[in-house]
Amino acid sequence: MRSVIFVERWTCPNPKCVYDGELRAGKRCLICGAEAEDFDFGALGELLKEKWGVAKLKKQERDVEQVMKHVKFCPKCGSTDVFWASGLPQFWSTWECRRCGYRGQVILEDSKMAVKLRENYLKKKSSK
C-alpha cells in the first residue's frame, strides 16, 4: 500500500502581491517578503478571491490608462469635446473645441494636466 504525504502549502498572504507560487508555512514570499501562515483551506479561498479582485482592478486601471492615452483634450478648457476642424487641406491640423470655442493647432493629450486645466477653467468661469 502506498502512503500519500500531504504537504501543506500556501500562497503569499498579501492580497496585493502578484506572487501566486506555493509557499510552505513559515517561508517568506519572494516578492513582498510576507510570511506564509499555517494552511487553512477556507482562508485560501477568500485570499484567492481577494487577489483576483485586486488583479482585476489593476487590469481595469491599465485599460483606462490605455484609453486615456488616445483621448484629446482642449488646451484652453480641458474638455474632451474637441474635433478636427474641417475645411481646406492646410487646416487639417486645426482643432476646435465645442465647449469654449478654442481653435488652434495645439492639442493636449495628458489627462492629468487636462484635469487640472479643467478645474482652473471652471474656477475662472464661475468667478466672472
Structure characterization notes:
- This protein is α+β, with helices and mostly antiparallel strands.
- It folds into two domains: 9-63, no CATH class; 82-127, no CATH class.
- 36% of the residues lie in helices and 9% in strands.
- It contains two helices and five strands.
- A three-stranded antiparallel β-sheet has the order 3-4-5, with no helix packed on it. It has a two-stranded antiparallel sheet with strand order 1-2.
- It is elongated, with a radius of gyration of 26 Å.
- It starts with 8 loop residues before the first strand and ends with a helix.
- Residues 3-7 have low confidence and may be disordered.
